[in-house]
Amino acid sequence: MSAQAQPIKLLAPAAMLQMIQGFWISRAICVVAELGIPDLLTGRWFGLMAEGHFVHNDIAQAPPISHEMAIAAPMQYAMVTRWGSFTSS
Question: What DSSP designation does 7 have?
Fold first, then answer.
């Protein structure tokens, strides 16, 4: 006897809420990307964490570090794929 995963059946309100949350998340990602925030700040944030600076009043005012973009791209990919694994049913 083989055990196959059965799809989760959501009640209509829960399914609607999940769709609405997906829309909010996609819009937030789009706005952040259009503003260039990930490109400018994600690499700086992770780079400064590696140097021991974990808290910033304003990350945009923190001193730039070398290779911010090289740090930002893989970290953004890791964050998005991890977020997707938490939100998918």
Answer: P
Identify the H or E element spanning 66. none
**pLDDT digit string, tens, across residues 18-54:** 888 888 877 777 776 776 666 668 888 888 888 888 8
Q: Which two tokens stand for residue 1?
A: 């006897």
What pLDDT score was predicted for residue 5? 64
DSSP 21-60: HHHHHHHHHHHHHHHTHIIIIIHHHHHHHHTT----S-GG
CA atoms of 36 and 32, how far apart (whole Å): 6
Are the C-beta atoms of residues 43 and 68 closer than 8 Å to each other? yes
CB 43 within 8 A of CB 67: yes
